[in-house]
Amino acid sequence: MDNIKIDPETSCWEWQKHKNRKGYGKIRAFRKTLSAHRLSYTLFTRADRTTDIPEGAVIMHDCDNPGCVNPTHLTAGTQLDNVADMVAKGRQATGQRHGSFKPGKQAVWLMCFLLGQGRTHEQVAEELGMSVAVVIRETTRGFTGP
Length: 146
What we know:
Elements: E1 4-6, E2 13-15, E3 26-29, E4 32-35, H1 36-45, E5 58-61, E6 74-77, H2 79-88, H3 105-116, H4 121-128, H5 132-139
Antiparallel strand pairs: 1-2, 3-4, 5-6
Helix pairs in contact: 4-5
């Protein structure tokens, strides 16, 4: 249990070891790098514990915490189920935070200026209320300024 910390408020089992950029726990087991939540689901909820998660299935977090490995917070579903859950909970990106948002030239110039000042793509995105994908896409196109 050294790898998890239980949050008494949410009852999430927060993964304490390595996480990817999106906050999902990663673990090295069976000579592979596995998603900690998928391994938890397999170990604790699969009745026979001998079969894998069905091909194409995703393991969804009912708690919306990607670092959670509490098997009671995990359910299997399709990617369509996962997207429907995201929309129902209002977690989809919209407006400036959407990855396909097209900022104006002045916004792109400001992004380049802030990056030139030493800020990271993540910091610029947070400061301007945009997605990191938009900042990276717009500042790697050879923009020359307004």
